[in-house]
Amino acid sequence: MKITNICCIGAGYVGGPTMAVIAQKNPNIKVTVVDLNEARIAAWNHDDLEQLPIYEPGLDAVVAEARNRNLFFSTDVDGAIEAAEMVFISVNTPTKTYGKGKGMAADLKYIELCARQIARVATTDKIIVEKSTLPVRTAQAIKSILDNTGNGVKYQILSNPEFLAEGTAVQDLMAPDRVLIGGEQTEEGLKAIQALVDVYSTWVPDENILTTNLWSSELSKLTANAFLAQRVSSINALSELCEVTGADVNEVANAIGKDSRIGPKFLKASVGFGGSCFQKDILNLVYISKSYGLNEVADYWEQVIIMNDYQKHRFASKIIQTLYNTISGKKIAFLGWAFKKDTNDTRESAAIYVADQLIDEQATIAVYDPKVTAQQMESDLNYLGTRAEEENERFLMSIKDPYEACKDAHAIAVLTEWDEFKTYDWQKIYDNMLKPAFVFDGRGILDHQKLETIGFQVYVIGK
Ligand code: UDX
Ligand code: ADP
């Protein structure tokens, strides 16, 4: 079966870039990305590529090439589903904030709505592809909805989890370590798998396309993220031990990373991991393990989250303690709000939690981030629900100029590893701050010796 028409439900961080690359690499396939959010679709269609709703290096060029050739962004969800032979589901699956599994299980509300919508409008057979990260055996639920509410249309469900990392999405999509496709091991299932393999094989070498059964594919995604997050929590756990023993976490990371069995990547100590995937996926793994009665397995993975929460908390406490245990009325500048560099995504960013703890102590936080809007920062803080929105507004300011953000501040905290921070005129920043002037480098990116020579008092995580 040759695919000529693809629909993707959800024009977010995953759906948008993934479909842009699929369309660019397959000019003969019409790819339509749909979303309920009209403003988001309008932004994807904006003439000015600076206005795309998602910031990813290199994405503008891919969109410029494929958009309105064979890549389309639309709010006509029904029309696009109907016309497609293959429908990707790429909607959000946040952690549940209510009811059973609250704070742990994935909220599958949006997935179920998609399945029901497909069942309602489809008149021809379709291959449904799960792109969002889902708990194991979600495909079963989707299948059951489609088979029982549809009108005789036949469906095949595939799991094709996305492994792109934000900030390097285009690069990761262009040259993926692997593409994983899971499907039913029946004649029809294998045909569906092959149809999706053909879409990717226009640019991904065959040996990098893995096919598995559905459940292996779903579980592999959770496992990959859990292993990556575990590495960050492991090195972060060591960062505190380094601080008290006089070891340097970067030297330790370098030394262990040279061991080919361990490897050098993902060993950067930080103020804590963020992003939409790590925490959610581990919580999912924990919830699934618990629901099968595997309490030791659940506890093992939960510790990765506990360590991460502790690291954010420890960083904020370090600031408070260093500033003589009183930060009420003091201005603290934040460099960075995004959960990592080269993205405007702030989901689960460590900055939000550190700000929250400092605002509890009535400090004023002046944030500069090159890509995050003031509105986003406010809504992130309000989402925690710690205090009234007016209070948050009073204590959190977004400043468009980094020098202005640091002016008259008692301390600077680096929360995101944006490259531009390294190129600032740090002498000028120092001159305009209150003394003693402190820098808390939560990402270990600044030249701390240089800062100390200028006169700053510097704290670097893991040193
Ligand atoms: C992750 C996975 O890498 C990706 O494969 C999956 O599809 C989605 O989840 P992402 O969340 O975009 O991607 O970012 P990632 O680069 O994995 O970083 C996650 C967090 O860990 C960031 O906050 C990052 O700053 C932090 N991190 C990463 C560290 O603190 N230290 C490291 O060494 C690496
Ligand atoms: P991700 O990082 O997984 O891509 P996002 O939140 O960035 O997550 O994107 C998910 C998108 O899915 C959002 O833009 C949301 O509006 C969209 N969405 C959710 N449910 C539906 C639905 N039933 N139909 C169409 N779009 C949907």
Write the layout of secondary structure elements.
Layout: E1 5-9, H1 15-25, E2 30-34, H2 38-44, H3 59-66, E3 71-74, H4 77-83, E4 86-89, H5 109-121, E5 126-130, H6 138-149, E6 155-159, H7 169-174, E7 179-183, H8 187-200, E8 209-213, H9 214-245, H10 249-257, H11 278-291, H12 295-322, E9 331-335, H13 350-360, E10 364-368, H14 374-384, H15 389-395, E11 396-398, H16 402-406, E12 411-414, H17 426-431, E13 438-441, H18 448-454, E14 457-460
Parallel strand pairs: 1-2, 1-4, 2-3, 4-5, 5-6, 7-8, 9-10, 9-12, 10-11, 12-13, 13-14
Antiparallel strand pairs: 6-7
Bound molecules: uridine-5'-diphosphate-xylopyranose and adenosine-5'-diphosphate.
Task: Describe the protein's architecture and organization.
It catalyses: UDP-alpha-D-glucose + 2 NAD(+) + H2O = UDP-alpha-D-glucuronate + 2 NADH + 3 H(+). Substrate binds at residues 162-166, 221-225, 261, 268-274, 339-340, 443. 45% of the residues are buried. The strands form 2 sheets. An 8-stranded mixed β-sheet has the order 3-2-1-4-5-6-7-8, with helices on both faces. It is built from 18 helices and 14 strands. Helix content is 45%, strand content 14%. The protein folds into 2 domains: 5-204, NAD(P)-binding Rossmann-like Domain (Rossmann fold), CATH 3.40.50; 306-460, 3-Layer(aba) Sandwich (Rossmann fold). The mean pLDDT is 96. It is of the alpha/beta class and 463 residues long. The structure holds uridine-5'-diphosphate-xylopyranose and adenosine-5'-diphosphate. Residues 9-15, 34-37, 40, 77, 90-92, 110, 113-114, 132, 276 line the site of adenosine-5'-diphosphate.
